[in-house]
Amino acid sequence: MDFSSKLKELRQQRDISLRKLGEKASISYSILNSIENGRFQPSKEIVISLAYALRVENVEELLVLAGYPTTSSTDSE
């Protein structure tokens, strides 16, 4: 799954509109729409803002989906 699909899934699970999410994360509707449709690569800061706005516990997972390497080197196998 890519970041845009995960973002849409999380947003819909929480029954929140793009506009409302934008307000919570301080990100414009047009940027969010472009991210969700795969036309814009979000910065690390945007991913983190969205994670907090959506109350995501595993921010690292979203960062990886968005193409940012994890900062921890501990992987459980």
TrEMBL record:
Per the UniProt record, the source organism is: Paenibacillus radicis
Q: What is the lineage of its organism?
A: Bacteria, Bacillati, Bacillota, Bacilli, Bacillales
HTH cro/C1-type domain location is 7-62
Q: Which Gene3D superfamilies match?
A: lambda repressor-like DNA-binding domains
User: Which SUPFAM superfamilies does this entry report, sorted A to Z?
Assistant: lambda repressor-like DNA-binding domains
List the Pfam families. HTH_3 (PF01381)
Q: From which residue to which does any coiled coil extend?
A: none
The name this protein carries in UniProt is Helix-turn-helix transcriptional regulator
